[in-house]
């Protein structure tokens, strides 16, 4: 299990670095916009956090608005003290910031695990410059392609039901990754054409869209948010790829065999 | 992909190599899926800002 352990180790370091960087960027670029949008969300009573409310005659819709209204409103301090309770949310301020940092680091490591494992199949990321290109691919797969059909959304924005969107998002990421892989690692024209078809197909199928695009969120605020999300995610992926390249280089550079160096 | 394939400095058989890399990738998918896609209320609320900022489908 040496290889597995090394992959996890490299992913943990690179994910930690990139996650902290992303959390800092989010604190300045995206979270303030989310907080602004929540003001509109609370003001426009009809538009609760619960976008599933747009799906009429759903069995959930009777119960969901009640719980979600509680969770989206600023929770009382007493409420936030019971983490196991349903509808719990971190209290605004430091607690919320801290949870965001944790989420960034944990998923940063998750993305790093995927990146390192996949890149090892292709020979591994040799240095930071190769890492930057792998990072670009990650950005295209996980941000750019899904974001075309499902642009980053602010609270209080209308959206289709959650599960179909998650399925479309995942399928788009998988198809884009497969397409990019075919282009990069198979030197064959028919496969390259198949790759383009794979990348385009999810957008022909189309992402699940809400019934109405009516929203209290100003267009300008949303546009700002889309730009902020896209740019911060780009930086995250570039940093993640480069960090993997650097960390991996350190290991393979200092010892001929990682098995020796760790045994 | 022979037994001599050198990956991260360790030489392992191609089958074991595939399994270990696949396990690492699955672990990553599980982690991202849990934080970004879980329908649990508490997980959603804790990672709320992150989900919006990563353009994950939210709510």
Q: TL;DR of this structure?
A:
The complex is a heterodimer of chains A (263) and B (59). With 263 residues, chain A is mainly α.
Question: What is the number of independent domains of chain A?
Answer: 1
Structural class from helices and strands of chain A?
A: mainly alpha
Q: Give the strand order, joined by hyphens, for the main sheet of chain B.
A: 1-2
What amount of the residues of chain B lies in strands? 5-15%
N→C terminal distance of chain B:
44 Å
Radius of gyration based on Cα positions of chain A: 21 Å
* Mean of pLDDT of chain B: 83
Shape of chain A: globular
Structure write-up:
The complex is a heterodimer of chains A (263) and B (59). By secondary structure, chain A is mainly α. Chain A has one domain. Chain A has ten helices and no strands. Chain A has helices spanning 2-29, 31-43, 60-72, 77-80, 94-121, 128-149, 162-185, 189-205, 219-254, 258-262. The longest helix of chain A is centred in the last third of the chain and has 36 residues, at 219-254. Chain A starts with a helix and ends with a helix. The mean pLDDT of chain B is 83. The interface between A and B is large, with 79 and 42 residues.
